[in-house]
Amino acid sequence: MAPASQPAVFTTQSPYPLPPQTFMIPTAWSRYQLSQLVNKALSLSKPVPFDFLLRGDLLKTSLADWCTQNSVGEEETLEIEYIESVLPPQKMSDLPHDDWVSSVSCQLEQRFLTASYDGQLRAFDYSQKQTWSSVIHGAPVTSFCIVPSTSTNSHLIATASHDLTAQLTEINFESMQETKPLASLHLHTAPLSIVSSNSSGSQVLTASWDSLIGLWDTLVPESDEVPEPAPGDRKKRRKIEGHKPKRKAPLMVLKSHTARVSGAVFNDEKTAYSCGFDSTVRAWDLEHGVCSQTITSSERPFLALSLAPSSAPSTLLASSTDRTISQYDFRDPHPLASVTLAHPATPSCIVRSPSHAHQILSGAYDGVARIWDLRSVKGATPVASFKAWDGEKNFLVLTGKTEASYASGAKAGWGSGKSETTYHNFCATSCQFFFQPEIL
Amino acid sequence: MHLLSLPHFPPPVESLEMLSDEEGPEETASDDGHVDEFPEIDAGSDSEEEDLLEDEGEDEDSEEEDFEGEDSDDSMDRDIFPKPKTVISDITGQPKRVYPEIEPEYDSDSSTEDAPNCVGNVPMHWYDDLPHVGYDMDGKRVMRPARGDELDKFLETVEDPSAWTSAFDKNAQMDKPLSAEELDIIRRLYANENPDAGYDPYEPMTEWFTGKGKEEIMPLSAAPEPKRRWVPSKWEKQKVMKIVRAIRQGRIIPSKPKTTSKLEFYSIWAEPSTSHAPPLPAPKPRLPTNSESYNPPEEYLPTEAERTEWEAQDPEDRERDYLPQKYSSLRLVPAYDRFIKERFNRQLDLYLAPRIQRVKLNIDPSTLIPKLPSPQSLKPFPNYKSLKFTHSGSARCLSISPDGAWVISGDEDGVVCLWEVNVGREVKRWKFAGKIGALEWCPRLDVSYFVVGIEEALHFVIPPNLPSSVLVLTQSLLAPASLPPAPETPSPVKWVTPSSNSRSSDAAILTVHLPPSSGLPKQITWHRRGDYMATVCAFASVFWSPISYVLDYAASGGTQGGVWMHQITRRHSQAPFKKIRGAVQLVLFHPLKPHFFVATQQYVRIYNLSEQKLLKTLTPGIKWISSMDVHPSGDHLIVGGYDRKLCWFDLELSDKPYKILRYHTRAIRSLAFHPTYPLFASSSDDGAIQVFHSRVYNDLMTDPLIVPLKILRGHTVKQGLGVLQVRWCARQPWLVSGGADGAVGVWFS
């Protein structure tokens, strides 16, 4: 019996197009043979691995198995989309910390910035040496962001902390003494969960456990806008004497959530999105300070959110405690979760790929980070996953998040921070960096 | 009997038998013959022989009818009136005597006779082959009348109107109409009357001894008349006087209207007849068969092999309890030796046999299973372990802040950790001397502190990173500038606040010293307003040695059961019970009413604190109560025991459990109702946590719905101890559990 074959048309959005032509493909073939076929047809000098999508499903088995599983007849013409394969990133180095790392950034040139639960902000250079550190808060820092500014040697950092305030700090990596707390943002009555700034650096959003979202500008006021509490109680956060920050009041308070707000992010200058433990994802009109749209799902407290990658504008990804990441499109008047990515553990953070139009990275409490391609959503399997930390005894939590794009040539990199506890104490913590292998 | 007239000579004995063989109509025919057989002597007799025989026949007939009278009449007739004439016979030529023909007179007995056949009461089938059917009075043959065929008979019945009242006359061998008297007899027989028309069943009675002039005057006895006939009776007088006295004293009301004088009518068919089946008859004993006969057929007799086999068997194994035996006659059968025994067994059977009719229930077993909703439709509930927080010792107690964001967990090394629920990061830790017995967060939202119970002391601790307003209010509550006035009665419980300059966030802001040797507080429970707090102390030696328990018990004056109630604002502690029966295991405040649940080893008592009285005693039927929680509505209580039982009480319903769940394989350690979601969880020493859906309805008619949802496994059993405490997050369907393995797990939905 002759080997069965299936007619197929190949399409792609990658820079390696095939001529539109129907191929008869033996059904015993799987990804490897198909990738070889494409490489041979294009006669590429250097082999490029490809992955293949059939009706939004990543091909993991042979074609025959896929056809029987999806009950596709032998004479139907398959439309196979191929994408460049994503290989799991390779671990480059560890950056040890004294305490849990809560936030990571590699927006700045030649530096990584990390925030930790001991209230410190640290900077590392590419040779993994700690070059700078400063105590910003007396309580754990839960999140920070770099407010974009025009000045080159000093940077404005917004930090959110458990001590109920956020803080605007000007830092200068050249001199340790130049760390100036400019303003402390006083609104919330519960620990803050996140702080984020818009792209122009004019405004900052803070989200807190007390169900409020504060909108602030980044101008430092001349005098205290919020009165000092009654004298006599010792504030632990005022450890940095001399540079007493100005007490700043919010521009606007966004009230609509009924429980802890776990994530808030700017979409553009006028709109922002937030998600919370009340199982809602909300869109905000920042000009008027009102909630313009609310997506309510049933009993899914959201832990984190991220804007979708560039291929899907005004859509949002939110992770919830029922171990899924859902994609919501706000252009739809009655949005439902269009894509659901299931995890084996609680997904605690999501980040979109800065370079790839379809990829997101999610980190979960099982210590595994997963790269998802939003086109391959049917089987809900990640295109690549990597385990960041080994050891069954250790309690792993992935709380850091960042997006990074190095200017060093064509390399695209992912950075992720994490914290780790050993059996008794919290000394062994580290920050790890992964680099995606070169594709070209 | 016309013996001589018979043409053939059948023996006279035979005629009796033949008659008995005759049928009914023959019988009536002979009756007819009896009536009809009066001799009629024909002048023209055919033969001399017949004439000669005439006398004899006549004699016989008269003998039957009326012997004396007719005989005398006949003799007179013959002797006096008829003179024989001597004539010369035409046939023989010899002279013969010819008598004149008999004229039956009016008074002649044979006047009504018109039957010519005088053959007598003989079977008529003797004449079947002959042309005649008999002989008349004169000895002449009576010829057989012509008989038509069936068609003629039918035509006769059509033509003759009296055909249906005629009957076949056997003597005459023809149909004769029945006379009116005979028809009347038939009618009477048919109507079940006396056939005799002259019989009068209602004839008047003849009075022989009663009535005027027939009285008997003379007495039967000559004894003088007794005295009692005319002397008034003394006993009668006493009886009457008794009644009179009773009337005077009012014991008898003479003209009392009779209450029951009027008959009450009722419809006897008004009530429906009973639907009970009549009582069953006793089962019948088995009937004897051939083999039990005294003389059974040979094939029933056992062979020698069968007999030995039967004897070798045990009596209860035998197929039948006797061996067939053969006796040549009934008189040789001996007395039955097993009579008493068999009768006794029969009585036993009747006694034990159920004598009531049971209606067989025909129920599909699948309908008996309650229709529970599927767990998928009852989401959310915790179904996976998201986080694990690890203690070095076993995590005996934990508590969750009222806003549901923080967990405090205490272990046996005296370490209390404060950490976030959904990150698991430890924010602060406190170290106390001695193992932590209980932890509880104050339920108030405007202040924030928690209470840690260690050996003989309660420490009040403020968590870090509070808003300044909350912090100030908490500090002023726990360490006020001016202490409230001391209560009148000195309490053995001391409230100690360190001075404000030695205060630090690592130490307790307030310490309550319980009386010495009161042991480890094993439970701290708050009233929902957050002002009152109750603690239960375990006498440390209760569980270990009875002797030291008694000593400790006496030393601590512990009749109040180790229960203390603390009021935070007044800084005052009191023992609510002067004396309590049994060792108190747990106490609880009712969420809405001023009620107080106290669980002793086997009972749960509910007290009203404002009225200070016992309301109810619940009997869960558990040997040793380990845990208890009350539903947020306050109407339901769950109680768990070390004997693996979980009892759900509907407090409105009964003091017996509404439902008993026995799903754990080891002792239950902790129970918790979710404050807002319809969920409760139970943890056990088998290392598993079971989550139940418990929907309580507002109307009292609908029973609570309890659906088992999920078994959460993940804790390891260490030294026989599993999951020691479970608690719910306040606003999310999340569960936090502390295990003996030192792990505190957070279970997300």
From TrEMBL, chain A:
Skewed-composition ranges (Basic residues): 234-246
WD repeat spans: 185-217, 254-294, 340-376
Keyword set, alphabetical order: Nucleus, Repeat, WD repeat
Pfam families the UniProt entry points to: NLE (PF08154), WD40 (PF00400)
Main subcellular localisation: nucleus
Sequence ranges assigned to domain NLE in this UniProt record: 10-66
Entry's Gene Ontology cellular component terms: nucleolus
InterPro entries with a match to the protein in the record: NLE, WD40/YVTN_repeat-like_dom_sf, WD40_PAC1, WD40_repeat_CS, WD40_repeat_dom_sf, WD40_rpt
Record protein name field: Microtubule binding protein
Organism annotation: Mycena sanguinolenta
TrEMBL record, chain B:
Ranges of Acidic residues composition bias in the record: 19-30, 38-74, 102-112
Pfam family, one: BOP1NT
Localization (cell): Nucleus, Nucleolus; Nucleus, Nucleoplasm
WD-type repeats, residues: 388-429, 661-702
Biased composition (Basic and acidic residues): 304-319
Record-level GO BP terms: maturation of 5.8S rRNA from tricistronic rRNA transcript (SSU-rRNA, 5.8S rRNA, LSU-rRNA); maturation of LSU-rRNA from tricistronic rRNA transcript (SSU-rRNA, 5.8S rRNA, LSU-rRNA)
The BOP1 N-terminal domain, residue ranges: 127-382
Principal location class: nucleus
MF (Gene Ontology): ribonucleoprotein complex binding
InterPro entries: BOP1/Erb1 (IPR028598), BOP1_N_dom (IPR012953), WD40/YVTN_repeat-like_dom_sf (IPR015943), WD40_repeat_CS (IPR019775), WD40_repeat_dom_sf (IPR036322), WD40_rpt (IPR001680)
Protein's UniProt keywords contain rRNA processing: yes
SMART domains xrefs: BOP1NT, WD40
Gene Ontology CC terms: nucleoplasm; PeBoW complex; preribosome, large subunit precursor
Region Disordered, residue ranges: 1-114, 275-319
Keywords: Nucleus, Repeat, Ribosome biogenesis, rRNA processing, WD repeat
Superkingdom of origin: Eukaryota
Function noted in UniProt: Component of the NOP7 complex, which is required for maturation of the 25S and 5.8S ribosomal RNAs and formation of the 60S ribosome.
Family in the record: Belongs to the WD repeat BOP1/ERB1 family.
Subunit description: Component of the NOP7 complex, composed of ERB1, NOP7 and YTM1. Within the NOP7 complex ERB1 appears to interact directly with NOP7 and YTM1. The NOP7 complex also associates with the 66S pre-ribosome.
Protein name (record): Ribosome biogenesis protein ERB1
Source taxonomy: Eukaryota, Fungi, Dikarya, Basidiomycota, Agaricomycotina
Encoding gene, per UniProt annotation: ERB1
